[in-house]
C-alpha cells in the first residue's frame, strides 16, 4: 500500500488507520475511538 505524503494542518480530519495496542496486542482503529478524547502526534522521518 503506497504512503501518500500529505501535510495535515490544525483542524484537519486525521485519516483512519489501525495500530496494535502495546498493552493488549489487539488492533485498534482510529474510527473505534470516535467520541473519546484523543491526542495525536504525527512525526516526520524514521525512529
Task: Please specify the SSE layout and strand pairing.
Elements: E1 18-20, E2 27-29
Antiparallel strand pairs: 1-2
Question: Could you name the key traits of this structure?
Answer:
47 residues, mainly beta, two-stranded antiparallel sheet
Can you give me a brief rundown of this structure?
The protein has 47 residues and is mostly beta strands.
Mean pLDDT: 81
Distance between the amino and carboxyl termini: 20 Å
Q: Could you state the order of secondary-structure elements as H and E?
A: EE
Helical content stands at under 10%
Model description:
This protein is mainly β and 47 residues long. Helix content is 0%, strand content 13%. It contains no helices and 2 strands. The chain has strands spanning 18-20, 27-29. It has a two-stranded antiparallel ribbon. A hairpin with a 6-residue loop joins strand 1 and strand 2.
Amino acid at each position: 500500500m503506497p504512503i501518500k505524503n500529505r501535510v495535515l494542518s490544525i483542524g484537519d480530519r486525521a485519516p483512519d488507520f489501525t495500530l496494535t495496542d502495546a498493552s493488549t496486542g489487539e488492533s485498534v482503529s482510529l474510527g473505534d475511538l470516535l467520541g473519546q478524547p484523543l491526542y495525536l502526534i504525527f512525526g516526520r522521518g524514521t525512529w
